Amino acid sequence: MPNPHLLPEICIKVTLINFTVTQIGLEDQLLGDVVRKERPDLEEAKDRLVVSIANDKKQLKDLEDKILKMLKESEGNIPDNETLINTLQNSKLTSGMIQGRVEEAEVTEREINEARESYRQAATRGSIIYFVIADLALIGSMYQYSLVYFMNLYNLCIDNSEKDDDVGKRLQNLCEYVTFFMYNNVCRGLFEDSKALYSFLLCSAIERHAGSIPPASWNLLLRGTPASYVSLKENPMPDRLREDLWTNIEYLAATIPAFSELIDSFGSDSDRWLAILDSDEPHNEELPARFTAEKVDEFHKMMLMKVLREEKLVFAVSRYVGATLGQRFVEALPWTLDEVFPDTNSKTPVVFVLSTGADPTSMLLRFAERMNMTPGERLKIISLGQGQGPIAEQLITEAMKSGDWVALQNCHVASSWMLSLSRIVEALANDDTVHKDFRLWLTSMPAKIFPVVVLQQSIKLTFEPPKGVRANVARTYKDMDGEFFESCTKPQPFKKLVFSLAFFHAVIQERRKFGPLGWNIRYEFNTSDLDCSFANLKMFIDEQPEIPFPALLYVIGQINYGGRVTDDLDRRCLMSILEVFLNPRAVDDDYKFTKSGTYYAPPEGPLDDYRNYLSSLPMTEAPEVFGMHDNANITFQFAESRRLMETVLSIQPRVSAAEGALTPEEQVEMLSLEILKGLPEPLLYEEAAEGMFDRNEAGQLTSMANVLNQEMIKFNRLHKALKTTLGQIGKAIKGLIVMTNELEGMFHSLLNNQVPGLWSKVAYPSLKPLASWIKDFNARMTFMRQWLVEGDALKSYSLPALFFPQGFMTGVLQTHARKYKIAIDTLNFEFTVLKTSSPEDLEEGPEDGVLIHGLYIDNGRWDAERMVLDEALPGEMFSTLPIVHFIPAVNYKIPATMYECPLYKTSVRAGVLSTTGASTNYVVSLGLPIADHTTPSFWVLQGTATLCALDT
């Protein structure tokens, strides 16, 4: 247990001994290994000296004990005890001789240690690398590497790295070799999305240890601008730099000496900065002349990129790693079983860590054939499941004697048998009778139940399908049964539509990379869905004179694939995508899947024609393949960049402050006092407008007063939570109260500029960082107080300010129903977008319904001249939607010519599935008029939605 949390009553009864290896301790061990191989004479001399010094000191101690014993047992006058006197004289002579030897040996030891120290550089590098690798276990449960495994590899590096008579050159060769060898060896056991993270952790750890990255710079890169920092200087580009972005720039200039002139530069070098802000590759752009390469290195540029163009941070990280360690650390080499096999042995299992849609069985079968391990005879494969454990054990026992191979598939489903597997692997490591040709192969999806001891003792290989639409369709056609492909009675439409379905399958799978823009919920569509759809397609074409496209759409869209889809808006999206690929025009040779004409179903031909066409397609597809705007790539890159930094931050240890800087405790205490000072007063009923909470004859409040009352209760509860916990954290830091687990979590959240879980539990959904969250909370409280004070006279409402906007809309409908004596279940909302975005421009509120402000459009923009929804401008991720009039109307349905634009509380879009079948994050669908060149389906594919709140 690396970090045990034991109760106090247990701690007082036991003695805790920390056996965890430390960085300096491991460094000393590795230094011994290096010197033992490079200068065996030094290490042998040191070992002899250590033993000699220990023996001499033991002799001295024995002499002291003997003298004390004789003095204790002596009777009468000590000077008259001749034996004692002789012993004392002999002891004095012996002691002097031994002491002299000890001092001589200690001098010699110092000389040897000085000689050994010249090799410490290599040991330091190894220790740094090990602790980076050990941290990977915090990222993924399958990324487990033991110290013994690492030490074996490290010693292998010492043997295999290039030798040189010059010690300095030799150490440089060893450091470079061990760094790249460990990178490559570990990368083959990491998923693709973890490899860039690993190379960055490795590079930054080496640079931080060398002092090239000061703690302040590292802290700023990971944690960003503290929530307590207030911008003091005027923004020179208010139309291009958001308020929060300018605050970050200002803090960067104030904290990092290399950027001390940054504020002035934005004024005088504005053209250069605008070019960087507008560039498709800002990480490759030249900075203004004053920021020379000597002054601003690649790490500084990475910090700047996080502030200016966070979506490009992943590229800046790759550039930093390439410039620091070399380009070979940017992209890991693919592995093959031929390359991996020499590293295996009869006592070391090989674990294939799988991802959805990946199966290494065929690759293993081909390799076994090449190694004369005939599948079925010398390679025994068993898929684990109920009752298969004893059979697997029997196969392993027999193969250990015969030298055959055993492959156990799907270990993650056999949770109850994992303890037995752990026992088998442990026994395997200590069994000298195992046949040298025996190999144990395991496959498993990432699973926490998989034994750590097996992972640490094994060679891990990740196996995931190639990414991208081209690779996905190519995989389908590689596995396509030629007989099935030629079996339809109407080959022309069949082959066309088979290709269309394969492309559709690839598109809906790869669309997941865009996050909420692609799907509200991440669905695991698999090849069985596609195979079933192929069978349905063949049946319908063979049995019907005309292809029944409506029936095909229903069966394939609503049943085969739609059966997995739990969100109604995702199902709408699925059907819109399917209609692109499955329609009467799809069988025509001139039909294209995209506007560019790059993607289409080839004319009828043999299977190889389709495979050849696929090899001619671009390796990386543009967003148009998915029906999405080019800005979707920015969303994808932004999510990748944010995930990278959040993961690095999550595994950082708690650090002490640098000299002269505030300690973490002082930072949190100062921040909590700042937040406390800025908190508004709670909402009081005494402030309410006259008659706001008057009750009718039945003792009921009006619908809107009821909504306000519920919101006030929730806001006051959140306000109390903030005030109480901020006070408690200050006392806990001073030691006045116990720092509970909850308060410790809050401490780390405040330090990392994150919203504490203690607040999130009683708050509204929000993805904002701490500084923005506090501003947003204060703004919401301001609106709530305005509503409370003005009452029904309020002209426009901030729907995003509310905890439960759905309840507010029900209140509006109920008010309308009571006013006009209409059944509420016949009412729906009609929507009209006004020309203004500011409530201050309004002269009065509407007679019926409500005006709503503060909404945003995600992946689209409002054309104020034509009053329609239009495509987003390049690089514009979000835009403001003007004030919208929500008008209750009887049996109103949004016209088919309008886009039913969903409104969500946050950009995550997913939420808990409610009893209505909609996500709790979903509020309502707005009927918006659209530009003439678009259709509602166009906006569905774009993933366009409206949001109550942004992430910044």
TrEMBL record:
Q: Cite a single GO BP annotation.
A: microtubule-based movement
Q: Which Pfam families match?
A: AAA_9, AAA_lid_11, Dynein_C, Dynein_heavy
Please list the residue ranges annotated as the Dynein heavy chain region D6 P-loop domain.
346-462
Query: What is the protein's major site of localization?
Result: other
The cellular component terms of Gene Ontology attached to this UniProt record, alphabetical and capped at eight, are: cilium; dynein complex; microtubule
What keywords would UniProt list here?
ATP-binding, Cell projection, Cilium, Coiled coil, Cytoplasm, Cytoskeleton, Dynein, Microtubule, Motor protein, Nucleotide-binding
Where is this gene product found?
Answer: Cell projection, Cilium; Cytoplasm, Cytoskeleton
Name of protein:
Dynein heavy chain
> What top-level branch of life does the organism fall under?
Eukaryota
Taking the record's annotation, the residue ranges forming a coiled coil are 46-73
| Single GO term (MF) | ATP binding
Domain named Dynein heavy chain ATP-binding dynein motor region: residues: 2-97
Q: Where is the Dynein heavy chain AAA lid domain?
A: 494-632
Q: Where, by residue number, does the polypeptide cross the bilayer?
A: none
Q: Where is the Dynein heavy chain C-terminal domain?
A: 639-948
Which InterPro entries does this one have? AAA_9, AAA_lid_11, AAA_lid_11_sf, DHC, Dynein_C, Dynein_C_barrel, Dynein_heavy_D6_P-loop, P-loop_NTPase
